[in-house]
Amino acid sequence: MSACLVFGLILLVPVSAGEDSFAQIEEPDIMTGYPEEDAIDEHMHLREQRTQQQYDDGSPSKYDAGIHLLGIGKIDKSEGTYELDFWFWVNVNEEDDPTDFTAVKPEFDFMNAKKIELSSEVIEPHYYETRVQGTFRNAMDFSDFPFEKLNLQVTLEPVAPLDAQNVNFVLDPESRIDPSVFVPGFQLGMFEIKTEEFAYDADETYDRFIANFVVERSPAGSLFKNLFPITLIAALSLIIFWIPENFTPRIYLTAPLLLALVYLHRATVGEIPSVGYMTLFDKIMTIYYVLFLNSLVSLGIQMRYHVTHENDEKVKRINKIMRYFIPVIVVAGLLFIFVS
Known about the structure:
This protein has 340 residues and is α+β, with helices and mostly antiparallel strands.
């Protein structure tokens, strides 16, 4: 009888104690949302659970870390830098945690910051908040240019000796983007906050708080500003296939259009820094250049047969055959874009 009672207590105690235990809270590794939605709100119940938990002496302090983006300034694509203005805060929800920010102010290293300024600090025993304004760095991917998405990242960790043995970041679902944030030429996309451990060596590991704010070009704006002009030029160059035997106007039509295409190509890629890979725009331009090459080769062969052999029937057949290469080039180019 006594053995059954002991066994029952063993089963019941962990269950009852687990309701207020931090270890029982299933913390997400990442939270994502959009400026126009409150997708992170699905995790708001975690804040109420954390307020009920008790501090477990000896375990790392849990810092609820959050960020409120106030503004995005100049984005320098050539250097991969961008200006951000945001509030950052940490909150210790365990009431029994001995942490006292009024005695020792918490400090954080903004790992990817070029230059920052802290202001308007709010310091309470278990709460610290500051406004951060500065320039940050992050690698920018232009492979999808002119439809590229730029990841504006903020990465920070507590100042030594507050490593992962002392402090663990916990995601605060109150993180958000202010509705007033506006980026000229871009629109705000998905944003996310996450934590990860970073090891400098086997004995020195830090918990990092990372916020990613994605800005992207308007698809309609990129289409009409960057792609429509070059597509129109490439389409006009194909008119030469419907002007048979009139070689002079065909030459006058093709040459300036090719020069205009090259000029627009150089002007458009000038918006981004030099990269060692082909962008989406480069791949599209490759299709248009091949179309021009097909037109010029067709024109050259036809002129040869017309002048040297005086065979106009052969000229018409060549014009017709080379015209069939147009859809082949377009289909092959699309496969090149989507496969590579």
